[in-house]
Amino acid sequence: MQFQLKDKRILVTGGTSGVGRALVEMLCHENQVIVLGRSKEKLQKLAQAAPNVTTIRADLTDLQALRAAIKHLQTLGPIDVLINNAAIQHTPLFTDPGFNPASIAEEVTTNFTSVCYLIHGLLPCLEAAGDARILNINSALGLVPKKSSAVYCATKGALNILTQSLRYQLEDTGVEIQQAFLPLVDTAMTTGRGSGKISPLEAAQGILKGLERGTPDNFIGKVKLLMFIRRLSPALAARILKGA
């Protein structure tokens, strides 16, 4: 049975720009949307521009602040959908003189640890909804890594494994967990990198289509071709993505 994205309470992380902003704009007209974000200015602008949107300020790299946000969210009642969209990516190589080791914790905490905290902390709210969804926004780089952004690739690979494991844990609950694997999307994070990008709107449309259909692993755009190549020749897929 199709999951109807109407009259739902939906939490989106990283919803003030890029794919997250496109998701919020598509969802907010028929749902109550809560956006968790870091920038006070961007959250204010979003709240003014979009109907039915509530904003909560929290820096996902600050686990103490995140725990406080989760406690607040727990008081709001059932949550029908949790969309873990927020992510950051640093491109320097470990071998680069300017590589900053502090960026490792920032990426891991934002892209992976915060997701674990949110899922665990909000699971009672999701179970209370009766028929709820967790949607983790992943990347083709979680399947086949590239040369740069090693930590980002690792966090997305970890997110893939986490999603699969949690499916087993949530089998007897009313909560289903899905993920969407994105190709290169034209956002601020990918400025100056690659070609053939899809727009945030195209990405959001593909994400929500998979969410409504209940697709466990939703391969969007060129990721479908990557999966085909990977099945035929893992080595070829690795060569293609290496310098992406």
Automatic annotation (TrEMBL):
Keyword Oxidoreductase found: yes
Annotated transmembrane regions: none
Annotated SUPFAM superfamilies: NAD(P)-binding Rossmann-fold domains
Record has Oxidoreductase as a keyword: yes
Superkingdom classification of source: Bacteria
Alphabetized InterPro entries for the sequence: NAD(P)-bd_dom_sf, Sc_DH/Rdtase_CS, SDR_fam
Pfam family, one: adh_short
Keywords: Oxidoreductase
Family: Belongs to the short-chain dehydrogenases/reductases (SDR) family.
PANTHER family on file: DEHYDROGENASE/REDUCTASE SDR FAMILY MEMBER 7B, DEHYDROGENASE_REDUCTASE SDR FAMILY MEMBER 7B
This protein's name: SDR family oxidoreductase
